[in-house]
Amino acid sequence: MESPAAPSVPRPAPPGRPEIPITTGLGDNKQQVGVQVKRGQAPAGTLAPGDKVLAVTTPAQGEQTTGKGAEAPPSTIKAVVVTVSRPDATGSVVVNLAVETSDGPLLATRAAQGRIALVREPRGQ
């Protein structure tokens, strides 16, 4: 005679691991890039999670900003603020941005070079 199958009981999470998955709210189609911005490279004290921003590429050190190329608009990447750190002793903050997967590597490269300034888009649009 066969015994009835025992009901399946979920195992508890291992120690140190949460039972509820931690998510960033980015969804599966966004990348997150940390951008360190110095004073003057972002609006002071006004960035908040959920804000839409433009990550604007700034000229490289020694790059010519006059002449024919000076008239071209800078390249920009649309992003959404995920978190903003507290300012350090120099006033720099790290802003974690959610971007399209096609923009993540480019933004990370320019951020590592210190060539990004942030422009907050108007709220309510």
How would you characterize this protein structure?
The structure is a single chain. Strand 3 (76-84) and strand 4 form a beta hairpin. Residues 17-23 have low confidence and may be disordered. 7% of the residues lie in helices and 29% in strands. The chain is globular, with a radius of gyration of 22 Å. The chain has 1 helix and 5 strands; from the N terminus they run ββββαβ. The protein is mostly beta strands and 125 residues long. It has a 5-stranded antiparallel sheet with strand order 1-4-3-2-5.
Low-confidence stretches: 17-23
From the alpha-carbon coordinates, what is the Rg to the nearest angstrom?
Answer: 22 Å
Please tally the helical runs, counting DSSP H or I stretches of 4 or more residues: 1
Structural class by secondary-structure content = mainly beta
Order of helices and strands: EEEEHE
* Binned strand content: 25-35%
The dominant shape is globular
Q: Tell me about the biggest sheet?
A: 5 strands, antiparallel
Strand order of the largest sheet: 1-4-3-2-5
In short:
The protein has one helix spanning 104-112; strands spanning 30-37, 52-57, 76-84, 93-100, 116-120. It has 125 residues and is mainly beta. A hairpin with an 8-residue loop joins β3 and β4.
Task: Supply the key terms.
125 residues; mainly beta; five-stranded antiparallel beta sheet; 1 helix
Write the layout of secondary structure elements.
Layout: E1 30-37, E2 52-57, E3 76-84, E4 93-100, H1 104-112, E5 116-120
Antiparallel strand pairs: 1-4, 2-3, 2-5, 3-4
